Amino acid sequence: MDHRVVWSPAALEDVDAIAAYIARDSRQYASAVTRRFREATRNLRQFPLSGRMVPELEDERIREKIIYGWRMIYRVENAVVTIAAIVHSRQSFETGVGRVTRT
Question: Can you list the domains of the chain with their CATH numbers?
Fold first, then answer.
């Protein structure tokens, strides 16, 4: 059974901010990064548990995929995968944790 993948408004804002930041130096690289985020969500439709469990939370439902230097954090509930936040791996996880646990 395929899962439905939805993006939270905060995660969409994260992608926009990442793309804008990268595009200051390279529009091509910004496009490649955002394309990888989209590709990763396609895989989550069939394999929602393919990402690793987020170590800071120890909750089987909250997982992440590492894409370049970013952590795409998502929650799996029933047949829905919600992309909750995209946090740079050098950022404090606390930056995105509120969005993940409230989604």
Answer: 4-102 (3.30.2310.20)
